[in-house]
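Hi P.,

Sorry for the delay on this. The queue was packed all week, but I finally got your sequence through. Input first:
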Amino acid sequence: MRPVTHRLVIDFCHDPKDAIGFIDRTAITPAGLMVYGSLVSTFAHDRAWDVIHKSSAGVPYQASLVMRPADLVCENVPKGATVTVNGAAVPGPVTVFRKWGLFGVSVLPYGSDGRTSVAVGKPRSSR
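Then the structure:
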């Protein structure tokens, strides 16, 4: 993954028309990829306001990555073969994303990977 060199969009439920914030920093940690940024509310009860307040009240939102297709480098591993991914042996058939570019992140109630989570801190407003 390439490091973030400029702000990337955070949207709601993979809807590019529903931008709710931005990413300005990423880090690879022992726990996995961490993405940092801000949700930006422009008026009371807009989508960002809703996510901020519901998350603060305990709603467990998840995250989904938006990848840039042009940056993908994939390895297709056939049935019967094994490939090493993050230090673990993974049997085929499987497609491994060896290189990819982060294009954005989506906040949603149900992510494809149920191990993701979204943590919301102090509200920030553009008002």
